[in-house]
Amino acid sequence: MKKILLSLGALAAVMIALPMFSAFEAHVINVTAQIENALSVPLKSINFGTVFPQEHLDKPLGIRLSDSFIAEGRVDDVEYIIRQKPKCGVTTNNGTVLVGPTATGHVIPTIDNPLTPEDESKGGTAYTINCGSAPADMPTQGTWGVLPSLCEYISKNGRDEDGLETNNDDVTPSFHKPFTVSSSIVSWLDTRGRLTKGGQDVQDDWIIDLAVPCFGGYCAQDWENFVLGINPNAVAADYVQSIDNEHKVFGCDLWVEVESVSTAPYED
User: Fold this and answer.
1) Is residue 97 in some structural domain?
2) Cβ–Cβ < 8 Å for 241, 214
3) What does the pLDDT read at residue 211?
């Protein structure tokens, strides 16, 4: 009987010791990744300078696949969008001089006070634009806020004919609404582009057009023809600026955002 009891005690000691040993065991798996941008957009700003009503001006905007993307054999094409967003800045002299830093304004739907169609027809808005906190180094006479919008008057034309794929970029003409707000949803009028190594289309050369608006009751007699000649679907009266905005600095931020990246076709 004594031998049996000793054996059971030894077995219990072994069972207790096993979890204690496993608690000190660890395995380390080293995980690393180098993160690169898929697109290269060298241009940081587009400045049209001083312009005049009914001028039609254009500037180039190049968007290409990054060197890292081109060198990586696992990936092939990029789908991206160009989105127009409100612009905020520090101005003086009643908004006629831009003196300080700028930032993108974020569209916030006013869910608690939605507009009726009648409100909208009277020029009401179903949203606010949040500029964030004013810069710390604000000038004494400076004002921080939303600049009058240039977005409605900027076109984006990306129909280049390079590579094996053609017409794979959108066109958005001037005189359009860059976004609409319904209830709690902001719907953006995005302009889509595509680049592909397999299709030998590694750079899009966009043309950014500015069709300059007129003010108040001072539009030329051919204003409507000017608008419809650029965008036949526009209503010319919707794009006449308030006389209060004359002489002010207008602004718009163009956001280039990658929507998807596709892998290269499998090859044996």
Assistant:
1) yes
2) yes
3) 97
Tokens for 216?
A: 């108040």
Q: Is pLDDT above 90 for 40?
A: yes
Q: How many domains, in total, are found in the chain?
A: 1
Q: Is residue 31 part of a domain?
A: no
For the whole model, what pTM was predicted?
0.82
> What range defines the domain where residue 48 resides?
37-263
Q: What is the pLDDT of residues 151-200, one digit of tens each?
A: 999 999 876 666 667 778 899 999 999 999 887 789 999 999 999 998 88
